[in-house]
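hiii, so i know i said id send this last week but things got crazy w the move. better late than never?? heres the sequnce for the chain we talked about at the cafe, plus the structure i predicted for it. fair warning i was half asleep when i ran it
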Amino acid sequence: MHIVLITGISGSGKSVALNVLEDAGYYCVDNLPPALLPQLVDSVSGTTAKLAVAVDARSAESLAELPVTVRTLKEEGHQLKVLFLTSSTHSLVARFSETRRSHPLSHTLLPGENPASRRTLIECIAEERERLAAIEQLGHVIDTSEASANKLRAWIKELAEVQHAPLTLFFESFAFKVGVPLDADFVFDVRAIPNPYYDLSLRPLTGKDAPVIAFLDAQPSATEMLHDICKFVEKWLPSFKTDNRSYLTVAVGCTGGQHRSVYMAERLAAYFNETERVVLRHREQS
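okay and structure toks below
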């Protein structure tokens, strides 16, 4: 059975991801206690080939068993992938404020906690991060801090299509002024390359447009940096495959996320697409 396990921080988009997978034909279950996952798999194995399950931090007692459960299901022959959605605390606070919903952990009490006291949203988020820290590395981490719902839906659709590949290389451009993506395994800073932004004719364009590409192709530093990044990834990629990693995310950043980082991510994706399963993202572009 193909199983996608969705977990992560409340407010980071787990419901959006689950809805996308449901539309893709997955049998979906939300808020399942992790201890019940093996029974669920057994009960639906004869009726569906694709299962998506969302779990959260409210099942604190059984979360510790999740790594063992994941390993057991894989050993039984199930193709299981874990997606861990996260976001910056600032983004989470803004989302809860916009929706006016309370955090799930605000309704639970810690041992010995006074029922009359109520934790703040920041405290709930911090506690949830602590509870989920042990399972964050089970799968692919997706940072949704600056991602719109539509962009997240597109990312999940990509993942649903590539989830069975041995390893998928994600190249993503980003803007340092916005912040480094939380889901990055490697981060490369290309701000040392001459900036097309200062050419007024190139400023409104992006790293996907021919004039910007020609400008950067003519820069020896851009060519040299591209070569160095390619050789670095090529050197260490076999180690990640040996470690049975499903995803490796390489983030490339410049100041505004429009020219140099986009150009470099496009070049890297084209280079590795000849030999690897590649997905390309531009975080600052719709």
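btw The chain has a mean pLDDT of 89. thought thatd interest u
miss u guys!!
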